[in-house]
Design a protein that fits this description.
Elements: H1 21-29, H2 33-55, H3 58-74, H4 85-105, H5 134-137, H6 141-150, H7 156-167, H8 172-179, H9 183-201
Helix pairs in contact: 1-2, 2-3, 2-4, 3-4, 4-8, 7-9, 8-9
């Protein structure tokens, strides 16, 4: 695939509020490459972090981010401005990262919307009782490394919900919009992800006395 590099004469990119993305998007649609370069700089680290947490492979993550920006630029005219640009861009990134993950595992096609697990409220009850939960463990470096390795036990559909909610800090509503899911499905998948991670992490931690 042809690599598209977005360069800008701007040396220092000021922090932007999310609603300022729209002006940059409209300028980009009119052929202003520098405006799109600002968007790249604004979101490249966040997208790389998401892709790496999902694929657990830096090279695949970097390629997914590059391809996501390339496709976003190509399809910019299709962005109808009915949602945040960051939501639309993250959705493209997740599709690219999941394709990388499918190639890694050589499994049949998977998708965010069509997971093998059920979104019912039937959650396992026989888990080890320990504290704190995985959502609060992400703070320190050592625990973060343990949790990152433990993410591999989750299916892609559960992993991406956990990453968006508990790692990136998106709300259930924002996560639902990014993944094109109902909030109840997001909450169900997040509960399953946390419970599976808690069971896995109980191998590393004993019950607090």
């Amino acid at each position: 695939m042809e690599t598209m590099v977005f360069e800008s004469p701007i040396q220092s990119v000021p922090a932007l509020a999310p609603d300022e993305d729209l002006a940059l998007v409209r300028a980009s649609k009119n052929g202003n490459h520098a405006s799109f370069a600002v968007l790249v700089r604004r979101y490249d680290r966040k997208l790389l972090r998401i892709a790496q947490n999902l694929t657990h492979n830096l090279e695949d993550a970097e390629e997914a981010v590059q391809e996501a920006f390339f496709k976003a630029y190509q399809k910019l005219s299709q962005f109808r401005e009915q949602s945040k640009f960051s939501t639309w861009l993250t959705r493209i990134l997740l599709n690219e990262a999941l394709m990388k993950l499918r190639k890694q595992r050589s499994l049949r096609e998977q998708s965010i919307e069509n997971d093998c697990c059920s979104d019912s409220n039937d959650l396992p009850r026989d888990l080890s009782d320990w504290a704190p939960g995985p959502e609060s463990l992400y703070g320190t470096l050592e625990l973060r490394n343990i949790l990152t390795r433990s993410l591999l036990i989750l299916s892609p559909a559960l992993r991406v919900v956990f990453i968006l909610r508990d790692v990136e800090g998106h709300t259930s509503s924002e996560t639902a919009e990014i993944l094109d899911l109902k909030e109840v499905a997001v909450r169900s998948r997040l509960s399953r992800a946390r419970l599976q991670l808690r069971e896995e992490l109980s191998k590393y931690f004993r019950k607090s006395k």
